[in-house]
Amino acid sequence: MRVLWVLGLCCVLLTFG
């Protein structure tokens, strides 16, 4: 499930961005 990995990264980027 690499999609979940990408979604997690996006969430982190949005949080720290």
UniProtKB/TrEMBL annotation:
This is Glucose-regulated protein 94. It comes from Rattus norvegicus. The lineage of its organism: Eukaryota, Metazoa, Chordata, Craniata, Vertebrata. The gene is Grp94.
